[in-house]
Design brief:
This protein is of the alpha/beta class. Helices cover 50% and strands 16% of the residues. Residues 14-90 form the Polysaccharide chain length determinant N-terminal domain.
Length: 779
């Protein structure tokens, strides 16, 4: 990007920038002077969260971030509608007093010489402003919006005026000398509490300080610093009271809850104790350890008794079998170790009688009646012993069955001891937990009562409300700088959009972006009508120098031609009004002044323009006459002896024909060109625009050079695309671009200005002072 070119592109609009700067900076200066400055009042408070943690009845520790710096609840409280509504009502923010001055906003005042007693509730106050003036008879109250005036007679405020929502009276101090206030005018703004609350929330900014944990910064923005400080002080006082009240509620609710829980835990503890008591009774447990020892001893006793009984069964069975095997007359054993004293005694008695029988048998025979009687008694007695043994054995078997059952019961009880111990342990654990919780609740209740008795706020004011008297709006330095930048950017933006939306051709770059391989032959400056014909051989005018440059560049395109004779130069454009006839005329005059024979032909049969430059009638015979009648000699239609060059002949178009396309395509025109080549060095053709009609394309192949005329700030860039297509299709030959009507005062990117003016002092144009300055700057 060529920054110099871009800079010059915008520099030519410097009056716009100057005007914009003057307006913006001036408006900013006036605004700063008439608008009362807005100030920010700040206060810093500290809320000790650690104190709250110390006073908590129940503290739950977590691994999460400490709540020491979490002030969201306090910030939500301060910015809540209910809290701020108390501030509005306590400070009566629905009524504002101003001293009337000539600014966009009147100055707020804290003291006025009168007192307003509202006759309606603050919630239903109308949003209205009144202008109040004190005079000799009372008060004059004006409602500017409704254009109404109210008269209040006297200063005592006893009269209620219909249409006013208040009564008014002079203050005690003002009553001493009311005349001191006759010249002053005051303004009172009334608004309902809802609107006052909305305004307060808009002006209040509450943030927590991240660097200093536990601190809250309060900011109030207003044009009255005194009122802002009072509002912040009121917020701090209400917040302090609110913290204390909330703590009182918390402790009250905590104590009530603890009492309720203590009562509940007492019932639950009694219930668990009753369950334990019933369980011990049902399971015949006194003390669990004694119960275990008792049941263990019982099972051991049952086992021993069972073993002893089984031994007796074995001994009794042995004794019974042994006695049965014993023959009559043999002694029965007495060492069976039976625990039946009856059986043992019977065995002793049997053996004693057996001994008696033996004594009898020694003195007598076996048939002795005494012996027989005794033997009979022994058999009976032996049978009785056997019966007793069988009975004893049955008894022992019954005891064995009973012992087994008792053994099973004892073993079952021993087996259930762990379960019973677990159940009893759970009961004891629940009871212990309930007892510990009960004691802890009693302790917390006492702590809550003590904390409630010595309750204090954890809020501390670190910085009392202070006002920063460096106005935050409007800030003169930044406001003026912003106005200056806006004054620059506004015209820049407008010019940028204008240039961005502008599709006209303004410089060579615009052309080369579309037709990059086509050479630029030159630039024809825009001149006044009086300068159009100043193109003599000795002329130093801009048009003369520009056309001489054009001729030189055209000759460069003709350098391949062997003969410097019969050169055909075709002038055309994309649309009408781009000045091709003007350029063709001046080019013909310049070449003629170079002692070259030149024929200028007006080939634009639809809209001929050449006659205007020679002050000749439009309908004089010309090209159309020759083309329509071959028998005519075209040389007879030439216009000679003009005032511009003796070497210049002109063949005008003549009358406009009804069929120009058919007329121009007949062989007469080509024959004319061939004959003219022999007579003239240059043949200049002024043709029709190629984008409108196809006339020029029908004979463009005859041209040695095609000069395509583009008009500065007139030709659309889209037209160049169509022409470029004609060139690619070779419908136009050896094309060069000529930029016409370049405005030397506004054009950028051409290098004009001093280059065309410093040599030719005869062209003197009176310039304004700012253009002279611009010219000196370019020099």
């Amino acid at each position: 990007m060529d920054f110099k070119k871009e800079f010059l592109k915008y520099l030519r609009y410097w009056p716009w920038f100057l005007l914009s700067l003057i307006l913006c900076v001036g408006a900013a200066f006036i605004f700063i002077k008439i608008v009362p400055p807005t100030y920010q009042t700040s206060a810093l408070i500290f809320i000790d969260k650690k104190q709250d943690d110390k006073n908590k009845i129940i503290t739950i520790s977590t691994d999460q971030k400490s709540n020491e710096a979490n002030l969201d609840d306090e910030i939500r409280l301060i910015t809540s509608n209910e809290f701020l509504m108390d501030v509005v009502k306590n400070m009566d923010l629905g009524v504002s007093y101003f001293e009337k001055v000539y600014t966009t906003q009147n100055n707020y005042v804290n003291k006025v010489p009168f007192i307003l007693n509202l006759t309606v509730s603050r919630d239903s106050l109308p949003q209205v402003s009144y202008e109040i003036k004190v005079d000799k008879t009372g008060f004059v109250i004006t409602d500017p919006a409704a254009e109404k005036k109210f008269r209040v007679n006297g200063y005592d405020g006893k009269d209620e005026v219909e249409g006013l929502p208040f009564k008014i009276k002079l203050s005690a101090k003002a009553k001493k000398n009311p005349s001191n206030y006759f010249e002053n005018e005051y303004k009172v703004n009334l608004e309902p509490t809802a609107e006052a609350l909305k305004n307060l929330k808009t002006a209040l900014i509450v943030v927590s300080d991240e660097k200093s944990k536990g601190t809250i910064e309060l900011n109030h923005i207003s044009s009255d610093p005194v009122r802002s400080r009072k509002i912040l002080n009121e917020i701090i006082v209400l917040l302090d009271k609110s913290i204390v009240v909330n703590k009182q509620k918390t402790f009250t609710n905590t104590v009530a809850y603890l009492k309720k829980r203590i009562k509940s835990f007492a019932r639950e503890k009694d219930s668990i104790e009753s369950v334990k008591e019933r369980y011990l009774q049902n399971n015949e447990i006194g003390v669990m350890d004694n119960y275990v020892a008792e049941k263990t001893a019982d099972r051991t006793q049952k086992d021993e008794s069972s073993q002893l009984n089984e031994r007796q069964i074995a001994l009794a069975s042995y004794a019974l079998n042994d006695i049965k095997k014993t023959e009559a007359g043999q002694t029965l054993g007495t060492n069976y170790n039976l625990e039946s004293s009856i059986v043992n005694q019977m065995l002793l008695n049997y053996n004693t009688k057996l001994m008696d029988s033996e004594l009898i048998l020694q003195r007598a025979q076996k048939n002795n009646p005494a012996y027989i009687t005794l033997m009979t008694q022994l058999r009976v007695q032996k049978q009785e012993i056997l019966n007793s043994l069988e009975g004893y054995l049955n008894f022992l078997n019954q005891n064995n069955i009973a012992n087994k059952s008792e053994q099973s019961i004892a073993a079952s009880k021993i087996k259930n001891i762990p379960t019973q111990d677990k159940i009893l342990g759970n009961i004891n654990s629940n009871l212990s937990m309930k007892e510990e919780t009960y004691v802890a609740l009693l302790q917390k209740k006492e702590e809550a009562v003590l904390n409630g008795a010595i309750l204090e706020s954890n809020l501390k004011t670190l910085n009392a409300p202070e006002t920063n008297y460096s106005a935050i709006f409007p800030q003169p330095r930044s406001f003026m700088l912003g106005a200056f930048l806006f004054g620059l950017l506004l015209p820049f933006g407008i010019i940028y959009v204008r240039l961005y939306l502008d599709t006209k051709v303004h410089n060579e770059e615009d052309i080369q972006k579309v037709m990059n391989n086509i050479p630029i032959l030159g630039h024809i400056p825009k001149i006044d009508t009086n300068e159009k014909l100043e193109n003599t051989a000795t002329s130093h005018s801009l048009i003369a120098e520009a056309t001489r440059t054009l001729v030189s560049n055209v000759r460069y395109l003709l350098h391949k031609k062997k003969e410097d004779k019969g050169n055909i130069i075709l002038f055309t454009s994309s649309i009408q009004g781009e000045g091709k006839s003007f350029c063709a005329f001046h080019n013909a005059v310049t070449i003629g002044n170079l002692n070259k024979k030149v024929l200028l032909i007006g080939v634009d049969l639809r809209n001929p323009q050449l006659h205007e430059y020679f002050n000749i009638d439009k309908n004089v015979p010309g090209l159309t006459n020759y083309l329509s009648n071959k028998n005519d000699d075209w040389k007879g239609f030439l216009q000679k002896n003009n005032n511009y060059s003796q070497n210049l002949d002109i063949l005008l178009a003549g009358e406009v024909p009804p069929n120009p396309s058919q007329l121009i395509t007949n062989s007469n025109f080509e024959l004319l060109i061939e004959e003219a080549k022999e007579l003239y060095d240059f043949i200049i053709l002024d043709t029709a625009p190629v984008q409108i009609v196809s006339d020029t394309l029908n004979f463009s192949y005859l041209a040695d050079v095609t000069v395509f005329v583009v008009k500065y700030d007139y030709t659309d860039k889209s037209n160049l695309v169509h022409v470029n297509n004609f060139i690619k299709k070779e419908q136009l030959k050896n094309v060069g671009i000529l930029i016409n009507a370049v405005n030397m005062k506004t054009a950028y990117g051409y290098g004009y200005g001093q280059n065309y003016s410093y040599q030719y002092q005869e062209i003197k144009v009176k310039k304004p002072w700012y253009k002279k300055a611009h010219s000196l700057k370019e020099a």
